[in-house]
Amino acid sequence: MPLAVYILGLSVFALGTSEFMLSGLLPPIADDMDVSIPQAGLLISAFAIGMVIGAPLLAAATLRLPRKATLIALITAFGLGQVAGALAPSYEVLFASRIVSALACAGFWAVGASVAVAMVPVNQRARAMAVMIGGLSIANVLGVPAGAFLGEHLGWRSAFWAVGAASAVALVGIVTKIPSIPLPAEQPQLRRELSIYRDGQVWLAVAVTALAGGAVFCAFSYLSPLLTDVSGLPESWVPSVLALFGLGALIGATVGGRVADGRLFPVMVGGITATTVFLAALALFAESPVAAIVLSFLIGVSSFFTAPALNARMFNVASAAPTLAGATATSAFNSGNTVGPWLGGRVIDADLGYPATAWAGAGMAVVALACVALAVRVHRRGGGSRVVASAGAGAPAEVPVGS
């Protein structure tokens, strides 16, 4: 595997850490910016909105641009976004910096995936994508808890500076180790790829992906205050619990990726059902520190267990649009990451308490299951003739998958 692929994995580590680290930084940000916890939670939604808009937009806008130069521009913009966040004098500036960073992150995913695939033989493409996905998984295991640790001991701004430094290291690696990738002789036809959006199965796949992701982030975005204010854990425990969630996510994505091929719908039903049960249990037993810790791990496992299947399903129903399939899945995941924290914030504003965010997430998961049932019905009515894409091919969208 070329060193350049691992450089892309390092870049994704920085991107993923920035995307998810605010879950452990909401209380200090809210205090410093003199806003409520739900308002601080909207910073997570801001990043997700940028990803929703940026993924398809930048995938289309950069089709004819040199790959290496595009990666350099995007990782630079992302790093500057982290610096702007670290220096932000107000909530509004911090909010804007999150959107800019998200746009750059979305574009980097779209371009980076194509570069990783272009640098290896056909029979190593899945491995190359696995390296990029590994960067995101490690961000959940190490980067997010490290951000919470820095926020507790050195202030929340230090976490932004750390991600900015990681972006600078990635920039040096891209400049020195990424080769110049020639553009394909035959340019993709955007009009033809856009035709996938006339397919109802594509929109069902988008709905399931968005609802499944939103269900988790409705509760996960406010996990830090839930652990300290409801479960009674000291703040020093929050990074460890976030790391446990990330470890569960890594295990879930690994297992889900191995069993998803040929069993997409059973994996989706099983994983989303388990997530529903675990979220409901978290709402019921949030006052127990042991239960909260164990359930945080289990939610990480169950939610990321479905990610490869969700991605593979998207690449299956959108197989006519290889350029936009990954971008569409990324947008779908981040649509959920937008709505979930927003819904959780509304629940908190209604004085229903932090455990109620888990109830709201469980409700989103139930709707996701209903959409899966409808997708199964439509799939069977159509004869199920489409060939399921490899879970590895779906990676750019979010193991999070792909992201």
Q: What key phrases describe this protein's structure?
A:
disordered C terminus, 0% strand, mainly alpha, 403 residues, 16 helices
**What is the straight-line distance between the termini?**
21 Å
Give me the strand/helix succession.
HHHHHHHHHHHHHHHH
Largest sheet: none
Give the overall average pLDDT.
82
- Shape, please? globular
Determine the strand fraction and express it as a percent band.
under 5%
- Residues in helix, %: over 70%
Counting DSSP H or I runs of 4 or more residues, the number of helices is 16
Radius of gyration over C-alpha positions, nearest whole angstrom:
20 Å
Structural class: mainly alpha
Uncertain runs are 384-403
Structure, described:
The chain is mainly α and 403 residues long. The chain is 78% helix and 0% strand. The chain has 16 helices and no strands. The chain has helices spanning 3-20, 26-33, 37-61, 67-87, 91-118, 125-154, 156-177, 190-194, 200-220, 223-230, 238-259, 264-285, 289-305, 307-317, 322-349, 355-381. Helix 5 (91-118) packs antiparallel against helix 6 (125-154). The longest helix is centred in the middle third of the chain and has 30 residues, at 125-154. The two termini are 21 Å apart.
